[in-house]
Amino acid sequence: MSFTKLVCGRLYDGVHDEIQAGREILIEDARIAEVGAHTATPAGCRIVDLSALTVTPGMIDAHVHASFFDWREIAKDPIYYSDGMRALAASECARRALSGGFTTIRHVGWFREDYVLDVRRAIDAGFLTGARMVAAPHFLCAPGSHGDSTQPLATNPALSRFLETQYPTMGSGPDFFRDAVRHEVKIGADFIKIMATGGFFTPNDSPEDRQLADDELRAIIDTAHALNRTVTAHAYTAELITTLAEMGIDGIEHASLADRAAIRLLEDKDIYVVPTFCPYDEIVLLDEDKLAQKPPAFQRKLRHYRDRLVESRRAILDSNLRLGYGTDLVTGYQNYECGREYSALLRNGMDPYRALRAATAENARIVGRADDIGTIEPGKLADIAAWPRDLLADDKALLDCAFVMKEGREYPTQCMLETR
Questions:
Q1: I need a surface site. Which of 129, 173, 197, 276 has the fewest CB within 10 A?
Q2: Domains detected in the chain
Q3: DSSP category for residue 14
Q4: What is the pTM of this model?
């Protein structure tokens, strides 16, 4: 049995929308034992002075694609990356995310096999160092969809068709998708991810494309729920979001073209949204330098949909939605720069406490771990981070971590403002 006491300068505990001064956190082994102005000091207790920092729960990023080393390499993935290479990349992403103060990341699938469940198991067993991973190993998607990495190879139909056969959860028909869900659960998926619409990143589809039929969507949602797994969907438009909500979906990723009526329906049904402002921030806030780093097709779509993206963002910010926090970084920034979404949220006018709550307590609910992470309370795992910047005024605050602890163990930190 070992004890550590953290002496906090300021504390955001994930429970209250306030920064508290002069608090202490007593940790016994992997869990928080006591929080207060003056906690006990057991014999042999190690004291860690964080009096110059703001202490928070370990942050949680609920929308990460962990399976690449560098965003500039993604175009090579369908041909040049092996499954093992993606697994190594997922491990590195988890390690770097932890060094940035994010103790849990939610991997929402990738275009090809990445053995992320093995990475998750290795981290849980202590063989690898990294953020805790909650994972959906594969997208459930249709050929030619936003989840089909062979889109750029469509001019070579034979090669494209062959590579489609290498993806276990891409297909058609309700029976196929029932089987796909069962297989995902069998191998250890924490939740199920649907690619329900087209997207901005892929070259040959539109964000308004509806890429799965109603009977396919129902088969996925009903089968997953029967097996006690939640389901989230990559979805943009009000029409499809409404359909998914009526079918009983648990969450929506993006919702970037939703209207106010669809958002009200999500509120009424208590369906969470992970809005991922980061990938669209360059067009909403008109940062031409960052926009130029995206592929040409991505840029064209963003420009075409700008007015709707702006209006939907306003509606999300004005809502009472259960908002999660997720970066979805695939261009312009590395996938482990998880603090980027905080910058986007604050620059778009979100209240800092709402953003902090999204990245802690609300995300803990979304990833199914609210009983042991997401807040600083007695009995919770000692997932804790500390920051030198003003969390309420500095949008770059979550890119500059000075202290991180996961399950009572400290790890090296890295300032993400210095990465490229």
A1: 173
A2: 3-57+374-412 (2.30.40.10), 59-366 (3.20.20.140)
A3: S
A4: 0.95
